[in-house]
Every structure is written in C-alpha cells, then in structure tokens.
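does this look right to u?? zinc ion version
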Amino acid sequence: MTLFARNDKLEFAPAEEVRAVQGQLLKQHVEYCMGHSRFYQERLAGIDLETVSLKELPLTAKMEVSIRNSEFVAVGPENVADIVFSSGTTGWPTKILYSQGDLERLAYNEERAFKTCGLGASDIVLLTCTMDRCFIAGLAYYLGVQAVGAASIRNGHGTMEGHGEVIKHADPTTIVGVPSFLRKLGVYLRERGMDLRETSIDKLVCIGEPLRDAQMQPLSIATDLEEMWGAKVFSTYASTETVTTFCECSAQAGGHLHPALGLVEIFGADGKEVPDGEPGEVVVTPLGIEGMPLIRYKTGDISFIRREPCACGRTSPRLGPILGRKKQLLKVRGTSLYPQAVFAALDEMPEVSEYYLKVYAEDTLSDRLAVHLSLRPGPVDVDVVLRRLQARLRVKPEVIVEPEADIRRVVFTPESRKPVRFIDLRK
Ligand SMILES: [Zn+2]
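got this back:
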C-alpha cells in the first residue's frame, strides 16, 4: 500500500472540495511524520492531529535536512528503493532516500505534469537529461513518460550529433531538456541543414532554467525556442527533496501543482507569507512521501503564486518562473536583483556569446557586480552592451570582455552538472 493519493480530478475541483481533501491528506501526512521521522517526532510535539492546520506547523530548512539527515529517514533499510544526492548548502551533497511507494508517487506526479502540458500515449519523448549520476530528474521523467503510456528515448547527455540522428530516425514529438541546451542543439542542427520546423517535434518540456520573467512575459530563450523548433515550450519545476512538480499547461501561464501531491506557500524576507503574486521563497509540503517526508520545506527558490482561474480549467495554484535563489540576492546601492535578471538581459543580446557574473562585497550595504563576457565576431561597441545592461537592470555592473575560450573554461567545469554562471565572492 502506498501513502499518496491518486486523484486525477482534484486539479479541476472547486476550492471547497480541494480544501477538504487536502485537509485530510495533510492530517495523514503529519500523523505519518510524527510516527516515523525522528526529526518531526521532536519538532511536532504538542501538535493536535484532530485540529492540525498547515499554518501552525514548523518550517523545515534545507540545512536541517543536510545536517540532521538520518533523523528524517522514515523507513527501514528494507524499504529503501533508491538513493540520490542533492547539492547541499554545507558544501556536502544531501542524501535523499526514496521508498518503492515514493517511486510510484514520482511516476504519478510526473504523469500528471506531462498530461498538464498535453502529452498522451501516442507521444514519443526524447529525454536529454541523464538517468544516472545519482540524479532523480532523469528517472522521474522516464517514469512519467511510462505512466502516461508514451514512448521514451533515453538519449541522456548524448552528443548533439547523436540527438540529431535520434530526431531523424525515431520521430520524437517532444524533447525534455534544459532550455539553453535545446537552443544550442537547435542552432547546431540547423547549421547542419536540418529544418527543425519540419521535424515531428511539437513540444519542448523545459527544466532547470526559467522561460518567463516576473511579469510572465516570455524571455528571449522561450521565443527563440518556439520559433526555431516550431514547437510550444512548457516550463516544469521540482526539487530532489520535494519531488512534487509544477508544470505549465497549454495556457503557458505558470506551473500547476497537483493538489493531491503537495501544498505551496510563499514567504517574504521577513519570514511572513506574502500575498498572491508577490515574490518570495517557495515553501512546499509534499504529500504522501514515505522515505524522507517533509513539512513546509523551504526550497530557497524565489517565485510567486497565481490563483486566479486558468484558461485550461484547472483550479490548482500556479507557480511563476524561478526568479532566483534566495541566498543569491544581489544588492547594489539600494536596488535588489537576482543573477537570473542579469542572465536574461545578456541572453537578449545576440552579440554576447558567453558570460558569467562575479559578485564581490563592496561594503555591508552594497555588492559590486562584474560581468565577464565574450563577444561574437563583428563590429560591437562594448559601451552599447554596458548601456543596455544598465537600462535593463537599473544598476551599473562592470563589463569585462574576454576571449570566449577563457569564459567557457569558467562556465563549463567537469565538476558541475550545470553551467557555472554565478561566482559569489561576498563571504
Ligand atoms: Zn492551466
């Protein structure tokens, strides 16, 4: 028997029905945590299960899961099915365990997410994320494709040429991947004569990088991808700890959370909940987890919630794009921004080929930003780049132009799973 609830219709149900079902699921979740997790046994002492509500429960920090790791484990070794590591806050990766039931929940979670962006049994899905290296994402997408009844092509971190061959010979309808990689792949294949708009691909499910800005307007990466591939882009977001996905629907207006699988809240810098639409830290309570259940887990990611009715008919809350990481907030002479805003501005300048951002502590109130970038061949005035950055960001960074090979050496390191574009020297 698994703990999670399969309830396909709940995402379309009226608010009162959702509240009643979620109240029951939360009560079961809290009861399970109190009975199986040493961390929560201690943390939840004195909570009355009969009257329990989300708002009275304590928050859980990433650091606690990292430092008191074994106290979160709620199953015996005979019930552990998969072990992964998530990048930790202490420099050490955090170990996360899943039970067999958690993997079934993961499949259901990803099935709901894929169905939200319109996948069905006749789709063929090219997965460009790795299944191994102790990551959960690749496995989650694979299980989700299987649960939908679609076909998977597990090409992982294959070469661009290899992906091109797969596209030519296996006719995928959908690609799951990181947006900047999908753009690079598109450019590569187009330069080699492939007409991407004529391929079978009509959906790009995008992970790891945002597609929209704080006003929900598409970033240039989103419009580039749609134009280049002749496909629709859908943003999807989850984390190793919460294994609960937010996925965009056909309205492309924020990621829906399946209401039987989790609860979401947004907290401001003052530790208080913010009104809908205002950005703050994403806090998730995943429901029905057995291995390492969590309550009000602070993800460290910054976004906002939208609750107005969606064009797709779902009543579930939608999460906006990830605007940045809480600890990466930059403060420059009274203006606050996240590195992602700098990246989005640079992505919109076709003359910039590669870049990274370095930040130094100037004084206690202000940071100093240095943008290291390389330029494509051709006549480019670096002052123009600087002025455009300044206009977009409302702060003036230093701009340092370097050869592309030097920038790439910093950005693409074998130690990191993602490109390193942010170097924080403030501590
Ligand atoms: Zn929708």
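The chain has eleven helices and 21 strands. idk if thats expected tbh
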